[in-house]
């Protein structure tokens, strides 16, 4: 069940960010999968086309796609191109729902998005609690 190429895929690259462009692409595609705006069978734009649209080298987009393939989020087939893999969505949907609830709660306290991201990064870097 192949779907048409997702031409309305919204990806923006911030060249001033400390995050490499391939990682920005990877994270944004993961976000689209988690939000279910990309579903199993949806085709991603060809590497060269997306690279041209974003003003990046094709190798940068290829690396993002490769990372997504290694994570099992996409599969690449000769004639079909790169498509969202079956089963890539289920676990991500739960994470997205939890993230949405968290963001809604902390935004209600008045924290800025940057402060929220800083708090999450800090939590990810801290050692897990011991039982």
Automatic annotation (TrEMBL):
Protein name per its UniProtKB record: Transcriptional regulator, GntR family
Keyword Kinase in record: no
Lineage start: Bacteria, Bacillati, Actinomycetota, Actinomycetes, Micrococcales
InterPro entries: Tscrpt_reg_HTH_GntR, WH-like_DNA-bd_sf, WH_DNA-bd_sf
Organism: Sanguibacter gelidistatuariae
Pfam family, one: GntR
Presence of keyword Transcription regulation: yes
Alphabetical list of SUPFAM superfamilies matching this protein: Winged helix' DNA-binding domain
Domain HTH gntR-type: 19-87
Molecular function (Gene Ontology), one example: DNA-binding transcription factor activity
